[in-house]
Amino acid sequence: MAFKPAAWPRRLRSQEWFGGTSKDNIYHRSWMKNQGLPADLFDGRPVIGILNTFSELNPCNAHLNDLAQRVKHGVYEAGGLPVDVPVFSVSESGFRPTAMMFRNLAAMAVEETIRGQQMDGVVCLVGCDKTTPSLLMGAASCDLPTIMVSGGPMLNGYFRGERVGSGTHLWKFSEAVKAGEMTAAEFVEAEASMSRSPGSCNTMGTASTMASMVEALGMTLSGNAAIPAVDSRRRVMAHLTGRRIVQMVKDDLRPSHILTRAAFRNAVRTNAAIGGSTNAVIHLLAIAGRVGLPLTLDDWDAWGRDVPTIVNLMPSGKYLMEEFFYAGGLPVVIRRLGEAGLLERDALTVSGGPIWDEVRDVQNHNEDVILPADKALTQSGGIVVLRGNLAPGGAVLKPSAASPHLMQHRGRAVVFQDIDDYKARIEDEGLDIDETCVMVLKNCGPRGYPGMAEVGNMGLPPKVLRKGITDMVRISDARMSGTAYGTVVLHASPEAARGGPLAVVRDGDIIALDVAARRLHLDITEAELAARLAAWTPAAEPPAGGYAQLYHDHVEGADTGADLDFLKGCRGHAVARESH
Ligand code: FES
C-alpha cells in the first residue's frame, strides 16, 4: 500500500520545548540562542538531529564532521533547523574486548539521545561496522523520521602493484608470513598501503555490507553505499540527505513505515548478491527486533537460496568498493534482483516511493565487477543456516567465501577451549592436526568472549600452511570479520558459555558438515551427548559490576540478534514531562 504523507503544517514535538511563552519555553530557546541562532529558527520548523559518530579513535569515521556540515547545508536549504549531536562511536579496529560488546550500549544511548531531546527528525552519520546497526537500532526504537548516510569506503589499496583490501590482505599477508612466503618487514611495509584515505574498509566487509543493507532496506537515498569517502559525490549525498529529512518530517515518514518484512527480504537477498558479511545476519535480526518484526535464521536461509553472488569484490572476489562505485554500485545489484523476480519492488524507501523507482533505469558499467548471472561467483550465495545436534539453534556459513571441496566434510575435531588456548597452541609444531581435521573454538559467543569476537576464521597451523593448504573447516560460536574468508561455520547456537553442545565437543570427536543438507553433526550417541551436557559447568565467572555485568546478564544469543533482552521493541518518541 502506498505511503500517505501526513498533513502539513502541524505542531512538531520540538515545539514542546521551543513553541510558546512559558518559563520553560524561554529557558529552552534562550540557552539555544547562546549559539547565535536567530529567533525565527524556533518558529515550528523541523529540528533535525545530525547524529554524528565522528571520533579520531574511530578512524573509519574521522571524516564525518565534513559530511555533517553538508547535511546542515541541505537541512537549512529545505527550511529546517539542523543540530549537531555527537553520539557514542564504536570503532571496530580499537574497542576492546570487542566492538560488538558495545553495539547495544551505543544503541541504547542513541535511543535516549533522540527521545529525550528536541528533535523532529534524525540523520545518522555512520561508517565503521557497528555504528550503522547501533544507530539504526536506537532510531528504530524511537521511530522518528530517520535517514542514514554512510561515510563511504576508503580508496583502493595497492602494494607493489597488487590491489590490497582492508582486512582481507591483513589475513592473507599474515598467513603468508607464517608460511614463509613474505617477510615480517614486508608485512609492516604493506600496512600504510592498505589504508590510503579517509573512509571505512574498502572490501565488501561488514561496513560496506551494512551500508548496502541500509540502502537495500530503504533507509538511505539510493546509491549511498559505494561512493568513496573522498569523492565529491559523497558530499552531495550528505547534502541531499539533509534536504530530504526535512520533507520526511513534514510527511511523517518513519522507520516503522519502511522497515517491513518486504524490506528485510530485499536486504537479505541483496546480502547474498553482494557476498556480504555474516555479521549482517546478527545486525538485521537485531534491527528487526527493534521494530517488532518477526525475522528468523530460517528466513535468511530461505530468502537467500536462489540468489547468485554477482558482486566480484574481496573477500569473495577480486575488486574493491571503488570499482563497485564506478560500475554503478548497489542500485545496479538491486535492479538485477528486480529483473530476476527477487525484489519486493514496492518496498518503500526514504524517498517516499517504491525501491524499484530508484533503480529501474540504472546501468552496469563494468561486467567484470558486477557479473552476469551465468558468471556468478556462486549460484547460491545466500547465508547458509546449518542445524544439527552441534548447533540446534543454528549456525551460519557464507558460501561465497568457502571452499567447494569442503562443503561436505567429515573430520576429527581439534578443540580450543577459548581464543587464548588457540593462540597458545596453534603454532606448536607438535599439535596433532592436519588439513583433514575440523578446528573447533569454544567460548567466543556473545556471552562467552564477551561480545562475540571476530575470531571464527582462526588462522591455520603453520605446518598446514607450509603444505600450500589455505582452508580447513572451522567451527565456533564466534563471529568472523566481513573481510575474512574460508569454510568457517560461525555463530553456533546456543553458544558454549550457555552450555550449548559446542561446549562439550572433545578432541578426537568426529564432526560432519554437509552444507547442501544444511547439517552440522557431532558423531556421538544421544546418550553420550546428554551425559556430557549434564556434567557441564561454566568455564568463567560472570563479570562483577559495570556495563560488562549488564551485558552478560541480558545479552541474547546470536540466533536472535544478540541484543539486550530489555532493549527489544519500539518504545516510541513521546515527549517526557518538563522537569524545571
Ligand atoms: Fe572500520 Fe573496517 S575497521 S570499517
What would your notes on this structure say?
By secondary structure, this protein is of the alpha/beta class. The chain has three domains: 45-155 and 199-304, Rossmann fold (3-Layer(aba) Sandwich); 157-194, no CATH class; 384-540, IlvD/EDD C-terminal domain-like (Glucose Oxidase, domain 1, 3-Layer(bba) Sandwich), CATH 3.50.30.80. The protein is 34% helix and 12% strand. It is built from 20 helices and 14 strands. It has helices spanning 15-18, 23-33, 64-77, 103-115, 131-142, 168-178, 184-194, 206-217, 232-251, 255-258, 261-274, 279-290, 297-304, 321-327, 330-339, 355-359, 419-425, 462-465, 526-535, 546-554, and strands spanning 47-52, 81-86, 121-126, 146-150, 157-159, 162-164, 384-386, 394-397, 408-416, 438-441, 473-476, 488-493, 510-514, 519-522. Strands 7-8-12-11-10-9-13-14 form an eight-stranded mixed sheet. Strands 2-1-3-4 form a four-stranded parallel sheet, with helices on both faces. A two-stranded antiparallel ribbon has the order 5-6. Helix 3 packs across helix 9 (232-251), helix 8 (206-217) runs antiparallel to helix 11 (261-274) and helix 8 packs parallel to helix 12. The longest helix has 20 residues, at 232-251. The structure holds FE2/S2 (inorganic) cluster. Residues 60, 92-93, 128-129, 166, 200-201, 205, 207 line the site of FE2/S2 (inorganic) cluster.
